[in-house]
Amino acid sequence: MSEWPRGYRKAHHTEIDSTNSEARRLAEAGDAGSVWIVADSQTAGRGRRGRVWQTQQGNLATTLLIRPESAQVGQLSFAAALAVSDMVAAFAPRATIAVKWPNDVLAEGRKIAGILLEADQGWLAVGIGVNLAAAPEGTEFPAIALADLGVAPPSPDAALTVIADRFAHWYDAWVEDGFEVLRTAWLARAGGLGGPIRARLPHEERHGVFEGIDADGALLLNEQGLVRPIAAGEVFF
Question: Omega into 70 within 30° of 0, i.e. cis?
């Protein structure tokens, strides 16, 4: 049974514009962290590349504000994905759970959670949205909710407790042992590994075989024998 981790606070809001925006406000006001901000409803939730993130009733919208000492804060998207996949597996142990580069979590091949990192001047906001009770329709990558996996979905608070506990575990491992421990664990759960993928980059699309991720977290795309690292983009398989 997961317990709330020591050293982490929780700030609950019935309604807010965005938990990531609140993390920025707290950071700029001098909040030292570490605090999980959670909201029942967001009026301006957002995902990667400025997309709207819908927080339907019963789903989880949360952001962790922390101040890591390392400059390699982007690596913590992998810690967040591992923590969320741990939570989904805890409540739906028979489901097929995978992580999708760079920062999504899949259940039965469909997106159940998304992660958005934002950083500035020594602070990091780790935004997480999880479909617990309902999944949005009409998304480019098919979505799913925990409730669709044949289990009773947990409350947002119960789901957050598990995520906070597991994130603390992976964060501590990263601080003590570096990125390799996250990389190894993430690759063991990686969706599409070793198979054909399509990588959408800012100005082009590339096709090849998903070979893994490198020591910095970049995706390794094998294009007819030439392995190319991709630092940012979207992947489809």
Answer: no
